[in-house]
Amino acid sequence: MTPSRSRRYAYAIHPLHAVMLAGALALFLGAALSDFAYFRSYEIQWQNFASWLIVGGLVFSAVALLFALFDLRGAVRTRGAVIYALVVAAMWVVGFFNALMHARDAWASMPGGLVMSLIVVVLALVATFMGFSTARTGELK
Asked: Any transmembrane segments, and where (predicted)?
């Protein structure tokens, strides 16, 4: 009997979802780098840059969270999709508290703001990896 190849494609995320997820990662990473620059130089403008980058990251991650929640209501609800939605939700919540931390006086936002920015970047990396890691390979029968 000849082996037949059946294609089984994983569910890929929507292109706009991918752009929002990658944009959130870039903005949160920029905020963490701005926080690090402020931590090293105490130039207040770096803290202002970080605040604006966090707001942009929150907007992008909110759209990505909406996409993740809409994916959960679909017929293909897997454990990975639920974990992905929880990671994106955690990224948004920690990012929101990071924005509140940065709303304080610039001197009072350190080092807590830098630590929270690093946590948000790690969550964004995990969410981006989970969002883009879909196996698109066929299997032999």
From this structure: 50-70, 82-101, 113-132
pTM confidence score: 0.85
pLDDT in tens, 94-110: 999 999 999 988 788 88
Is residue 24 within 8 A of residue 64, CB to CB? The reply is yes
Residue 119 contacts by C-beta under 8 Å, 6 or more apart in sequence? 94, 98
Whether the bond between 15 and the residue before it is cis, its omega within 30 degrees of 0, is no
Over the stretch 83-95, which tens digit does the pLDDT of each residue have? Answer: 999 999 999 999 9
Helix (H, G, I), strand (E, B) or coil at 2: coil
Locate tokens 């089984």: which residue? Answer: 8
Place of tokens 């009072």: 108
Whose tokens are 């931390």? That residue is 101
The answer to whether 9 touches 136, Cβ cutoff 8 Å, is: yes
